[in-house]
Amino acid sequence: MTPARTHAAGMLLIHGAWQGSWAWDAWLPELAARGWTARAVDLPGNGAHPSRDAGLVVSLQTYVDALTQALAAFEGPVVVVAHSGAGVPASQLAEALPERIACLVYVAGMMLPAGMGYAELVDASVADVPDASGIAPYLQWSEDGSATVVPVDAALDIFLHDCPPDAARRAAAKLTPQQESGRTVVTTLSAERFGRVPRIYVEALRDRSVLLPLQRRMQALVPGAIVRSIDCGHVPQLARPAELATLVCETLASIGIDSAESSASSLFHSLTTGTSP
User: Fold this and answer.
1) pTM assigned to the model
2) Range of 116's domain?
Protein backbone atom coordinates (compact mmCIF):
# COMPACT_ATOMS: atom_id res chain seq x y z
CA MET A 1 0.00 0.00 0.00
CA THR A 2 1.43 3.38 -1.02
CA PRO A 3 1.69 5.75 1.97
CA ALA A 4 -0.13 9.07 1.87
CA ARG A 5 2.24 11.86 0.87
CA THR A 6 3.34 14.56 3.28
CA HIS A 7 5.15 17.52 1.75
CA ALA A 8 7.32 18.83 4.55
CA ALA A 9 8.25 22.50 4.52
CA GLY A 10 11.84 21.67 5.39
CA MET A 11 14.13 20.31 8.09
CA LEU A 12 14.99 21.83 11.45
CA LEU A 13 18.39 20.60 12.65
CA ILE A 14 19.14 20.58 16.40
CA HIS A 15 22.66 20.16 17.75
CA GLY A 16 23.66 18.22 20.84
CA ALA A 17 25.47 19.24 24.01
CA TRP A 18 28.55 21.52 23.81
CA GLN A 19 27.82 22.19 20.11
CA GLY A 20 26.13 24.81 17.94
CA SER A 21 24.41 25.19 14.60
CA TRP A 22 27.87 24.84 13.02
CA ALA A 23 27.70 21.11 13.80
CA TRP A 24 25.51 20.66 10.70
CA ASP A 25 27.65 22.66 8.25
CA ALA A 26 28.94 19.61 6.38
CA TRP A 27 25.43 18.18 6.07
CA LEU A 28 23.53 21.22 4.80
CA PRO A 29 24.89 21.00 1.21
CA GLU A 30 23.93 17.32 1.06
CA LEU A 31 20.36 18.12 2.01
CA ALA A 32 20.19 21.01 -0.46
CA ALA A 33 21.39 18.70 -3.22
CA ARG A 34 18.47 16.40 -2.42
CA GLY A 35 15.88 19.19 -2.58
CA TRP A 36 15.54 19.94 1.12
CA THR A 37 15.47 23.35 2.75
CA ALA A 38 17.16 22.97 6.13
CA ARG A 39 17.90 25.35 8.98
CA ALA A 40 20.19 24.67 11.90
CA VAL A 41 19.37 26.32 15.22
CA ASP A 42 21.59 27.49 18.07
CA LEU A 43 20.06 26.33 21.34
CA PRO A 44 19.97 28.90 24.16
CA GLY A 45 23.00 28.84 26.42
CA ASN A 46 25.40 27.33 23.86
CA GLY A 47 27.57 30.44 23.63
CA ALA A 48 26.51 31.57 20.17
CA HIS A 49 24.61 34.63 21.46
CA PRO A 50 26.27 35.86 24.69
CA SER A 51 24.07 38.95 25.07
CA ARG A 52 20.89 36.90 24.65
CA ASP A 53 22.03 34.26 27.09
CA ALA A 54 23.49 36.52 29.79
CA GLY A 55 22.25 35.26 33.15
CA LEU A 56 20.12 32.57 31.52
CA VAL A 57 19.57 29.30 33.36
CA VAL A 58 18.59 26.77 30.74
CA SER A 59 15.57 24.50 31.21
CA LEU A 60 13.65 22.14 28.97
CA GLN A 61 11.03 24.86 28.46
CA THR A 62 13.80 27.26 27.40
CA TYR A 63 14.72 24.84 24.64
CA VAL A 64 11.13 24.18 23.59
CA ASP A 65 10.39 27.90 23.39
CA ALA A 66 13.43 28.48 21.16
CA LEU A 67 12.55 25.55 18.93
CA THR A 68 8.94 26.70 18.66
CA GLN A 69 10.21 30.05 17.44
CA ALA A 70 12.45 28.28 14.92
CA LEU A 71 9.49 26.29 13.60
CA ALA A 72 7.65 29.54 12.90
CA ALA A 73 10.08 30.21 10.05
CA PHE A 74 8.55 27.30 8.11
CA GLU A 75 5.14 27.29 6.47
CA GLY A 76 3.90 23.80 7.11
CA PRO A 77 5.01 20.63 8.91
CA VAL A 78 8.73 20.15 9.41
CA VAL A 79 11.10 17.20 9.74
CA VAL A 80 13.00 17.71 13.00
CA VAL A 81 16.47 16.14 13.09
CA ALA A 82 18.09 15.83 16.53
CA HIS A 83 21.67 14.77 17.20
CA SER A 84 22.74 13.20 20.48
CA GLY A 85 21.36 15.11 23.50
CA ALA A 86 19.07 17.16 21.28
CA GLY A 87 16.79 14.14 21.21
CA VAL A 88 15.34 15.17 24.58
CA PRO A 89 14.12 18.68 23.61
CA ALA A 90 13.06 17.36 20.20
CA SER A 91 10.79 14.81 21.87
CA GLN A 92 9.29 17.49 24.10
CA LEU A 93 8.77 19.74 21.08
CA ALA A 94 6.77 16.93 19.46
CA GLU A 95 4.67 16.66 22.60
CA ALA A 96 3.99 20.40 22.50
CA LEU A 97 3.37 20.76 18.76
CA PRO A 98 2.71 17.38 17.13
CA GLU A 99 0.79 18.97 14.27
CA ARG A 100 3.90 20.97 13.25
CA ILE A 101 6.23 17.98 12.98
CA ALA A 102 6.13 15.64 9.98
CA CYS A 103 8.73 13.31 11.48
CA LEU A 104 11.32 13.16 14.25
CA VAL A 105 14.75 11.89 13.20
CA TYR A 106 17.17 10.94 15.98
CA VAL A 107 20.82 10.74 14.87
CA ALA A 108 22.57 8.71 17.58
CA GLY A 109 20.06 10.60 19.69
CA MET A 110 18.66 10.41 23.18
CA MET A 111 15.22 9.00 22.48
CA LEU A 112 14.30 8.55 26.12
CA PRO A 113 10.96 7.66 27.71
CA ALA A 114 9.09 10.22 29.78
CA GLY A 115 10.73 10.96 33.10
CA MET A 116 14.03 9.23 32.38
CA GLY A 117 17.32 11.12 32.16
CA TYR A 118 20.26 9.84 30.16
CA ALA A 119 22.35 9.45 33.33
CA GLU A 120 19.71 7.04 34.65
CA LEU A 121 20.01 4.95 31.49
CA VAL A 122 23.80 4.92 31.83
CA ASP A 123 23.61 3.94 35.51
CA ALA A 124 21.34 1.03 34.60
CA SER A 125 23.77 -0.11 31.89
CA VAL A 126 27.26 0.21 33.39
CA ALA A 127 27.25 -3.30 34.85
CA ASP A 128 27.02 -4.96 31.44
CA VAL A 129 28.08 -2.29 28.92
CA PRO A 130 31.81 -1.44 29.09
CA ASP A 131 32.49 2.32 28.78
CA ALA A 132 28.77 3.09 28.99
CA SER A 133 29.59 6.48 30.50
CA GLY A 134 30.95 7.68 27.16
CA ILE A 135 32.33 11.20 27.44
CA ALA A 136 31.36 11.68 31.09
CA PRO A 137 34.68 10.63 32.72
CA TYR A 138 36.57 13.17 30.60
CA LEU A 139 34.45 16.24 31.33
CA GLN A 140 35.93 19.24 33.09
CA TRP A 141 33.58 21.00 35.52
CA SER A 142 33.21 24.66 36.34
CA GLU A 143 34.06 25.66 39.90
CA ASP A 144 30.40 25.93 40.89
CA GLY A 145 29.43 22.68 39.16
CA SER A 146 26.94 24.42 36.87
CA ALA A 147 28.64 23.65 33.55
CA THR A 148 31.05 21.28 31.85
CA VAL A 149 33.52 21.50 28.98
CA VAL A 150 34.94 18.76 26.78
CA PRO A 151 38.75 18.72 26.44
CA VAL A 152 39.93 18.74 22.83
CA ASP A 153 41.73 15.40 23.08
CA ALA A 154 38.65 13.73 24.56
CA ALA A 155 36.42 15.20 21.85
CA LEU A 156 38.74 13.86 19.16
CA ASP A 157 38.80 10.39 20.72
CA ILE A 158 35.17 9.98 21.81
CA PHE A 159 33.13 12.16 19.44
CA LEU A 160 35.18 12.65 16.29
CA HIS A 161 37.53 9.68 16.00
CA ASP A 162 36.43 8.70 12.49
CA CYS A 163 35.85 12.18 11.02
CA PRO A 164 38.25 13.80 8.53
CA PRO A 165 41.18 14.89 10.73
CA ASP A 166 41.19 18.60 9.84
CA ALA A 167 37.40 18.84 10.18
CA ALA A 168 37.56 16.95 13.47
CA ARG A 169 40.12 19.37 14.91
CA ARG A 170 38.05 22.37 13.85
CA ALA A 171 34.92 20.89 15.41
CA ALA A 172 36.69 20.00 18.66
CA ALA A 173 38.00 23.57 18.95
CA LYS A 174 34.47 24.98 18.57
CA LEU A 175 32.92 23.09 21.49
CA THR A 176 31.62 25.41 24.20
CA PRO A 177 30.64 25.04 27.88
CA GLN A 178 27.33 23.29 28.45
CA GLN A 179 25.02 24.19 31.31
CA GLU A 180 24.31 21.11 33.37
CA SER A 181 20.70 22.26 33.77
CA GLY A 182 20.30 21.73 30.03
CA ARG A 183 21.98 18.34 30.03
CA THR A 184 19.88 16.76 32.78
CA VAL A 185 16.39 17.63 31.49
CA VAL A 186 13.71 14.94 31.29
CA THR A 187 10.56 14.86 29.21
CA THR A 188 6.84 14.64 29.90
CA LEU A 189 5.37 12.75 26.96
CA SER A 190 2.02 11.22 25.99
CA ALA A 191 0.93 8.64 23.46
CA GLU A 192 -1.75 11.04 22.20
CA ARG A 193 0.71 13.78 21.22
CA PHE A 194 4.36 12.67 21.04
CA GLY A 195 3.22 9.15 20.22
CA ARG A 196 1.45 10.16 17.03
CA VAL A 197 4.55 11.70 15.39
CA PRO A 198 6.45 9.34 13.04
CA ARG A 199 10.01 8.63 14.20
CA ILE A 200 13.23 7.47 12.57
CA TYR A 201 16.23 6.39 14.62
CA VAL A 202 19.65 6.39 12.93
CA GLU A 203 21.94 4.30 15.07
CA ALA A 204 25.70 4.86 14.83
CA LEU A 205 27.36 1.47 14.98
CA ARG A 206 30.79 2.67 16.18
CA ASP A 207 29.63 5.38 18.57
CA ARG A 208 31.92 5.88 21.58
CA SER A 209 29.69 8.46 23.25
CA VAL A 210 26.15 7.09 23.07
CA LEU A 211 27.20 3.48 22.74
CA LEU A 212 25.25 1.17 20.46
CA PRO A 213 23.85 -1.00 23.30
CA LEU A 214 22.43 2.17 24.89
CA GLN A 215 20.99 3.33 21.57
CA ARG A 216 19.24 -0.01 21.27
CA ARG A 217 17.95 0.09 24.85
CA MET A 218 16.34 3.45 24.05
CA GLN A 219 14.77 1.94 20.93
CA ALA A 220 13.28 -0.78 23.14
CA LEU A 221 12.12 1.69 25.80
CA VAL A 222 10.45 3.96 23.23
CA PRO A 223 9.32 1.50 20.55
CA GLY A 224 7.84 2.41 17.20
CA ALA A 225 10.71 4.18 15.44
CA ILE A 226 11.96 3.05 12.05
CA VAL A 227 15.57 2.06 12.69
CA ARG A 228 18.40 2.57 10.25
CA SER A 229 22.12 1.96 10.83
CA ILE A 230 25.24 3.82 9.72
CA ASP A 231 28.70 2.38 10.21
CA CYS A 232 30.45 5.27 11.91
CA GLY A 233 30.98 7.07 15.20
CA HIS A 234 28.97 9.65 17.09
CA VAL A 235 28.90 12.38 14.43
CA PRO A 236 27.61 10.89 11.14
CA GLN A 237 26.82 14.36 9.75
CA LEU A 238 30.56 15.08 9.69
CA ALA A 239 32.00 11.58 9.28
CA ARG A 240 29.67 10.46 6.48
CA PRO A 241 27.44 13.38 5.45
CA ALA A 242 26.42 12.09 2.01
CA GLU A 243 25.61 8.61 3.32
CA LEU A 244 23.58 10.04 6.18
CA ALA A 245 21.64 12.35 3.86
CA THR A 246 20.79 9.49 1.52
CA LEU A 247 19.78 7.26 4.41
CA VAL A 248 17.50 9.87 6.00
CA CYS A 249 15.94 11.14 2.77
CA GLU A 250 15.26 7.65 1.41
CA THR A 251 13.71 6.56 4.71
CA LEU A 252 11.50 9.65 4.78
CA ALA A 253 10.42 8.94 1.21
CA SER A 254 9.60 5.33 2.16
CA ILE A 255 7.00 6.58 4.65
CA GLY A 256 5.59 9.18 2.28
CA ILE A 257 7.47 12.29 3.39
CA ASP A 258 9.25 14.49 0.90
CA SER A 259 10.27 18.12 0.76
CA ALA A 260 7.78 20.70 -0.45
CA GLU A 261 10.53 22.10 -2.67
CA SER A 262 11.31 18.80 -4.38
CA SER A 263 7.59 18.06 -4.69
CA ALA A 264 7.00 21.40 -6.41
CA SER A 265 9.92 20.74 -8.74
CA SER A 266 8.54 17.30 -9.59
CA LEU A 267 5.08 18.74 -10.26
CA PHE A 268 6.51 21.46 -12.53
CA HIS A 269 8.46 18.80 -14.43
CA SER A 270 5.32 16.69 -14.89
CA LEU A 271 3.27 19.67 -16.09
CA THR A 272 5.91 20.75 -18.62
CA THR A 273 6.73 17.27 -19.91
CA GLY A 274 3.35 15.56 -19.62
CA THR A 275 4.78 12.81 -17.42
CA SER A 276 3.59 11.63 -14.04
CA PRO A 277 5.41 13.05 -10.98
Assistant:
1) 0.93
2) 6-273
